[in-house]
Design a protein that fits this description.
It is built from 1 helix and 20 strands. The chain is mainly beta. The protein has one domain: Jelly Rolls. The longest helix is centred in the C-terminal third of the chain and has 11 residues, at about 215-225. It starts with a strand and ends in a 5-residue tail after the last helix.
């Protein structure tokens, strides 16, 4: 069973929710890219969790580009992959299951998160559907499917046979995603053999399997996504 945590809404929308109260293992957020101009290559995406786990890339041709996006009345920064070989990588760190991944993404075929070594990964394909893997594959979309190109908030709980996926605050599938863990750091934008195409606005990694509706609402408010 997965616990759903409710609480104060996002700052400016009924409360002053602070994502840091969830003790994230990593937080790569849109506003960290705001200082870059559109079309500028991203060599480092700062980690706002306080753990110092910046996602970096030293090779010019492998860097995603910063772009500004407008969605649902909100303007925010994204990292945009070329769909060929762009990838950002952190230094080594470990997070065992269970853990919960929140992400704001758009585009088809977008592998936006993977553990180094590719034993854990999360993406959005052009079917369209969310796809998670940690030794087994878990797929899902809403009854009224969310389009590939749409900006969406995806919540992925990696918790063995009790894993699940939520899209825009609605659970779409539960089941076995496998028991894989993050052992040697993570990649943003890509994974082995399946590179991302599209935009990544935010990635938040939370230890434990308790889904925070407040975190989902926070991301929705930041990126103009209607939840529920």
């Amino acid at each position: 069973m997965t616990l759903l945590l409710t609480g104060a809404g996002p700052s400016g929308a009924g409360g002053a929710f602070n994502p840091l109260t969830l003790s994230p293992a990593g937080w790569w957020k849109a506003t960290s890219l705001d200082g870059l101009g559109d079309g500028v290559a991203i060599g480092s995406w700062a980690d706002s969790s306080g753990n110092g786990r910046a996602a970096t890339q030293a090779t010019a041709g492998l860097k995603p580009l910063k772009q500004t996006v407008v969605n649902g009345g909100q303007t925010f920064s994204v990292a945009r992959s070329d769909g060929v070989d762009d990838i950002l990588t952190t230094a080594s760190f470990a997070v065992a299951q269970a853990f919960t991944l929140y992400a704001v993404v758009s585009g088809g075929g977008n592998r936006y998160f993977s553990a180094a070594g590719d034993g854990v990964r999360a993406g959005w394909d052009s079917t369209p559907q969310a796809n998670n893997f940690a030794g087994a594959t878990l797929l899902g979309n809403r009854v009224a499917p969310v389009a590939s190109a749409a900006v969406k908030v995806i919540t992925s709980v990696f918790n063995g046979v009790s894993s699940l996926i939520r899209i825009n605050g609605v659970q779409v599938v539960a089941g076995d995603a496998g028991a894989g863990a993050i052992a040697t750091g993570i990649n943003l934008m890509a994974s082995t053999g399946q590179l991302g195409t599209g935009d990544v606005a935010e990635v938040f990694l939370q230890p434990g399997a308790a889904v925070s509706a407040a975190m989902e609402n926070y991301l929705g408010a930041q990126c103009g996504v209607t939840m529920g």
